[in-house]
Each structure stands twice: as structure tokens, then as C-alpha cells.
Amino acid sequence: MIADDEAVLTQKQRMLAGLPYHTDDPELVAEFTAAHRQARAYNLIDPGDRDAQNAALEELLGSIGEGCEVRADVRLELGYNIHLGARVFINFNPTLLDIAEIRIGNDTQIGPNVNLLTPTHPTDPAQRLAKWEAAKPITLGRNVWLGGNVTVLPGVSIGDDTTVGAGSVVTRSLPPRVVAVGNPARIVKVLPPNDPAD
Question: What pLDDT, on the 0 to 100 scale, is given for residue 6?
């Protein structure tokens, strides 16, 4: 059921507040379509033209630090909910479903075919048929490394300096300075504390 104060919100306001919203709302469909077109245009930019790529990313994303590289083909939902720190590297074919915010810290490296998935769908079949959806944010800390084909699920945070092995599915948040692998991803190594000289 929807509370009275929630009923007055637009579907976009509900989405941004993390509440269930209708995926076929015309305002949101228009935003999704515009972002998909921008992403497609980005994917067609000559990979040697870094200035054009950077300008397109600045227009497409919510924020981007200096020295980032995002390789095509990029797939996303809205763009403005994606925030990249400085010197982030994202390899080929990322899928960034940014219904909720995706925040990626400085110096993080993301392998090819990685999925960062913020949307959640109801397990109740009637709610799914009625086109309800919600989302939970994803946060990657500083100097995180996600291997190729990693999938990060809604609401997950990954701490600074953590590595996630290729093909892993991250269903729960991970602390800083660990190595995690598998489906679901499990911690297999804890790294020693930072050297004070770091």
C-alpha cells in the first residue's frame, strides 16, 4: 500500500526517493530514451578522440572526475545518477543501471562486461505485472578492482582497496581491503592494514 504522503509524489520523485514507482511513467520513459540515445552517441565516438569522449561523458553523467576512461559500449538507464571519482577506469561493455545512484571512488578499476544493477523488482507477481519497480544505490570505494563479468546487486557497498574476482556476483556489502570471489561473492583474503607511509 502507498502512504498518503507518498501518493502526491510524481513517479520520478518516488524513484529518486527509493520508493516503488511505475516504470512506464511517460516522464521517466522520456528520460530513459534520451539517456539511451546519448549513450549510443557516446559509443559511436572515435576511441582516439578522448576530448570528444570526455565532453560527452560530462554531459551524460551526474559527475566525473579528471582522468577517467570509460570504454564503449556503455549501457545505462539515466546517466545523471552515475558519479565517477578521479582516474576511474571502466573497460568494455559496462552495464550501469542507475535508477538509484551509482558512486565510484577515485582510482577504481572495472573490468569488461561488469554489471552494476540498482533496480529491484517485486517478488509478488501481481506487482510486477503492474509495472512496479524500486532501486537501491551502489557505492564502490577508492581503489576498488572489479574483475571481468562481475555483477554487483542493488544496495551493495564495496570498501576501499577491495578486489572482487572475475565472474563474481556481489550480493552483500564488502568491507575495505579484502579479496572476494564466487557466486555469491565470499571473502577469501583479508589484506593487512595500510602502511602508515601510504
Answer: 62
Separation between Cα atoms, residue 146 and residue 165, nearest integer Å:
7
Decide: 183 and 165 in contact? Cβ < 8 Å: no
Which structural domain range is residue 91 located in?
Answer: 9-190
Residue 4 inside a domain? The answer is no
Number of separate domains in the chain: 1
What residues act catalytically? 121
Which range is least confidently modeled, 6-20, 39-53, 137-151, 156-170? Answer: 6-20
Which of 189, 169, 187, 25 lies closest to 99, judged by CA?
25
Strand partners, 64: 84
Distance CA 171, CA 142 (A): 19
Whether 196 is in a domain gets the answer no
Instruction: Report the predicted TM-score, pTM, of the whole model to 2 decimal places.
Output: 0.92
Buried/exposed 142-153: b ≥16 CB within 10 Å, e otherwise: bbbbbbebbbbb
Q: Is 1 inside a domain boundary?
A: no
**Residue range 87-96: mean pLDDT, rounded:** 98
| Distant-in-sequence, close-in-space partners of 163: CB < 8 Å, separation ≥ 6 | 144, 145, 147, 178, 179, 180
- What CATH number does the domain containing 66 carry? 2.160.10.10
With cell 512506464, the residue in question is: 24
C-alpha cell at 71: 570504454
* Cα torsion 67, 73, 76, 79: sign: positive
